[in-house]
Write a structure and sequence with these properties.
Elements (H helix, E strand, L loop, with lengths): L15 H6 L5 E5 L2 E8 L2 E8 L1 H14 L5 E7 L6 H7 L1 E12 L12 E3 L2 H15 L12 E8 L5 E11 L6 E10 L8 H15 L5 E6 L3 H9 L3 E11 L2 E5 L2 E4 L29
Parallel strand pairs: 3-4, 9-10
Antiparallel strand pairs: 1-2, 2-3, 4-11, 5-10, 5-11, 6-7, 7-8, 8-9, 12-13
Organism: Serinibacter salmoneus
GO molecular function: acyltransferase activity, transferring groups other than amino-acyl groups
InterPro entries: Acyl_CoA_acyltransferase (IPR016181), GNAT_dom (IPR000182)
């Protein structure tokens, strides 16, 4: 069962990043200093934390001690939260990226290239959309055939293949039953750069999302991508937080069935059980060295 908004500590009940993620999770712990969300499934646990890095380190340590042997598939926490090397190695986690979460509630002005942007036919064009994302941004896990996709947009190139693409998924909103849209998979091929297509794609997607009733529109970008940040800020997006993400070493970026472990039957790899909480050598400690 998904935790209702009312169960969130008061400090997080209007936090857009937490509210966007909330529908994906079934476990919640924390307080006004930090909140940890978790979802344990057959393919592994996904854990997300937002708040003060020292408090998140405490919450994460407590969660791992309470769930010894848990297979952590994904972990995303507020940047600055220390996940000591010993913990990462024991869990089999590798660092993936540091990224900024940005949002807007205001529709940007119409873009002069908007007439070049059209909605994609996901039943017919998924492979071409995925190939474009893989070519331009192989670190992205956006997948046009993912279970939560709402719509993808495309700019056609002269040869009929995409010059640029962007997709959107539906996420949580301010109150139960409301929603937001998260844009992802923004990709413009080298041959089409310098034409403002990325700006046009984000503009069209944002305007359509807000017209559809989204409470806000969000997107993520790699923290070092200062050029993209400047573009999004001009379009009215504001940064809400920096996030550091890890995945299990057995997880690859994406496949035809979305993000998955690299095992043919999609079964979880054998995970050595950690010793009990009372075993000092493997007890998760907040003061462990990095």
């Amino acid at each position: 069962m998904r935790p209702p908004i009312a169960t969130l500590p008061p400090a997080w009940r209007r936090d857009r990043l937490v509210l966007a993620d909330l529908p994906q999770f079934t476990e919640l712990t924390g307080d006004d200093e930090g909140v940890l969300l978790a979802q344990r499934a057959r393919r592994g646990a996904t854990i997300a934390g937002r708040g003060s890095p020292p408090r998140l380190q405490e919450l994460l340590a407590a969660y791992l001690n309470t769930h010894p042997g848990v297979f952590v598939r994904r972990l995303s926490v507020t940047s600055g939260t220390r996940v000591p090397t010993a913990q990462r190695r024991a869990l089999g986690l590798r660092h993936v990226s540091d990224w900024a979460w940005m949002w807007t509630e205001e529709a940007p002005a119409p873009n002069p290239n908007a007439d070049r942007v059209r909605r994609a036919d996901l039943t017919r064009e998924a492979e071409a959309l995925r190939a474009t994302v893989d070519e331009v941004n192989p670190r992205s896990d956006a997948d046009p055939e993912g279970p939560d996709e709402i719509v993808w947009w495309v700019v056609d190139g002269a040869d009929g293949s995409p010059d640029g693409v962007i997709g959107a998924v539906r996420e949580g909103g301010y109150v139960p039953g409301s929603h937001s849209w998260h844009l992802h998979g923004v990709a413009v091929r080298d041959r089409a750069r310098g034409q403002g297509l990325g700006t046009a794609l984000v503009t069209v997607a944002t305007r359509e999302a807000l017209a559809d009733g989204a409470a806000w529109v969000s997107l993520g970008l790699y923290a070092e991508n200062h050029r993209a940040r400047a573009i999004y800020e001009r379009l009215g997006f504001h940064e809400l937080g920096l996030v550091t993400s890890y995945t299990h070493a057995s997880v690859r970026a994406r496949s035809r069935v979305g993000v998955r472990a690299v095992y043919p039957d999609r079964a979880l790899p054998e995970q050595p059980r950690l010793r009990s909480v009372e075993t000092a050598a493997l007890r998760w400690e907040v003061e462990d060295s990095t």
